[in-house]
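Why do we bother with a discrete structure alphabet at all? Because it lets us treat a fold like text: something you can write down, compare, and reason about line by line. To make this less abstract, here is a complete entry for phosphoglycolate phosphatase. Read it the way you would read a sentence in a foreign language you are learning: slowly, and without expecting to understand everything at once.
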Amino acid sequence: MEIKGLLFDKDGTLLEFHRMWLKVAQGAARDILQQYRDKSRAHPEVSERQLLEAIGIWGERVDNHGLLASNPVEDTAEVWHRLLRLKGGLPDFTRDVKAHFNRQVAENPLLIQPLPGIRDKLARWKQQGFKLGVATADTRDSTLYSLRQAGLLELFDYVGYSDGNISPKPDPALLHGFSRHCGLKAHHIVMFGDTVSDMEFGHNAGARKVGVLTGTATAAELQPHADLVLASVVDFEPEILM
């Protein structure tokens, strides 16, 4: 089957995941707790550690199936809103959580690093005529900022993000958006990702799936869901799947 489009998850697939998102999530949890405790609205016994564990952060380890690894910020906000037993509305709280996550990303630009060899590999594929896209659970502002900071944004024909106005992965909406934008059929697209959710996303849309080990999942977790598992995106050559 001819391959015409390459669609990538962002963090853990194109960009270094662990240092950045641990720092960002820790800062966002700390700030949201302070903001809502200062207003005497948060349950006083909820700790920063509990907020982090609720989204899949256990000390310095990120759970591949946790919310931070696979889900949009709206899901984090919903879980934190419930855990903090807030009486205020979820939409306002979600806006605050998004703002704290986006601010943490903007305040830590040195943590935004493309994985080794990614930029050159993407540039080579673009020169060869492949359509390139991103499909991420991150917000619009954070996605565009981090791709620009990493020097990758101009390489993509399509950037899809989860900002509450489109169904997040593993729903196939973002891949369908890439297909429409670039005039491709799903079976001409390869989806690259570092989580089981990414592989389910590709499957749900009818694309090929390549799991990579640069993020949160192990080979054993990815293999039942992927057509191929590689150490990194840079190890992929299209003829492997043709």
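What the structure line is telling us, in plain words: Residues 5-16+112-240 form a domain with the Rossmann fold fold (CATH 3.40.50.1000). The mean pLDDT is 93.
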